[in-house]
Amino acid sequence: MWSKHRFYDNGYKDGFAHGRIHGLIEGRALGREKGFEMWEELGFYEGVAAMWKAIYARQGRQDDRGFHHALQLLELISQFPRTNPSAESSDVDIPKLFRQIRSRYKALCATLGVKASLRASGTGSPSAEEDGTEPSHDSGNGSKIWDLSSPAKSKTGQDLSF
Amino acid sequence: MAYQFTTTADIDSESPWDESPSDSKHNEDAQWTRLENEFTTAGYREGITAGKEAALQQGFDAGFAHIVPLGRSIGMLRGLSSALLAFLADQPELLDEAKAISTQLARIRFSDVNPRDEEAEQHALEHLADGEDGVETEMQGGEGGAERRGMEALEDMMAGMGGGGDSAGRPTVEDVARLRERLERLARGMGLDGAVDMS
Question: Which family does it belong to (chain B) (predicted)?
Fold first, then answer.
């Protein structure tokens, strides 16, 4: 019996080391994809706000409503985490912040009389985003922001919860 | 005499032609080896799942933090040029350049600018050396990534860029840098260079 355990343990140890490499590789690929997607969108709003802020300033229109929308949009985006915070350090309500950013962006566009384009890249589902619902960003789990839950069930980790 | 008999049996058991079921030593060895294989394999299977699960989040966090500056920077270029485009609507002499920049920025995909994961490539090579395959999809974003690449290949075909779905004609990180310079030049000419500072 003892030998059986030894064989199993030796196999487990080797398997764990190998699995770890695959977990890191797969996790990195998923993290890159998600991080790029989120910050490409946030960066877009940031760029729009920065440009209009400069335009308003250049025209000496710092009292305009649009200028203040741009400032507030920049402020909200600056609060958004640039890493995936662990449960203990996370005190930001990410879905809420994301909603605030999107609605502030829409307010800026409305003030400017410009059509709001929520995604520059044209990927994702703009209609869902228009409603302010974030199908892939929302979850009941507010403690850990980008949490890989039960990855064993899904080989590719598609059930990332936010 | 008993000693003599055992020796003969040992020699016999090493003979590949001897498959006599009555040869207990041979059977014991075979069973032992089979047992070792079975338990080692079972342990390996469970270990690989557990190891993967244990490291997935760590990999995700690392990949996330690594890519955010690039995603933000491309998003910002798009946002800046989009705002400029709207602002320049009635200034045709500058509008064309803003449009050109904007259009080219819109063509960029994550797969065009996603840096190589050298560790993943190295590990895939090790698998190839072992005569395995199937690691490639994992390196390139898993099954979801494969699906997306399929869609992108389709888009390329429909855009008349050739049916290979390869990277020929795709924008590169260098193209992004050039587009940034063009955007900076355009903004500077309008006295709006402060906006393009992305610190």
Answer: Belongs to the YAE1 family.
